[in-house]
Predict the 3D structure of the following.
Amino acid sequence: MKTYQFRVSIIGIPKLYRLIEASENCTFDDLHNVIFQSFDRYDEHLYSFFITRKDTKSMRNIYDAPQITHPVSAEEMMGYGERKESTAKMQICDVGLNEKDVFHYLFDFGDEWWHRIKVQNIKETKAKKKYIKLIKSVGESPPQYPDYDDEEYE
């Protein structure tokens, strides 16, 4: 079985990243859950992964890439004639990632927390069971909802 090491960073925040190790049979839901926990989030929102394979700053290229999205969002898109894969059904091994590939993750469609995920390496292991874990944390997580100065909105 293959094991993937992912470097997950929040776009626009330097010196902040998480290393996550996952077996190939983990779903993108599993990956979301570890990212969610590793950045100290507490309020669930919809999310999507965009399999761009290359690093890009072009939102058009990101949105044009194959999308794997939250099960509720995937179901809603089918009503509009769009077919999006569900994170609950798609496993990491299903998308054919290679070392050094980059893909993008959007958490919270309103606040838009954009992440860059790079495949650091892929190893063949003898493990048989599904597993995913945070292996390194660098930098302090930003608050999910920044405290706005009350006077600013009065």
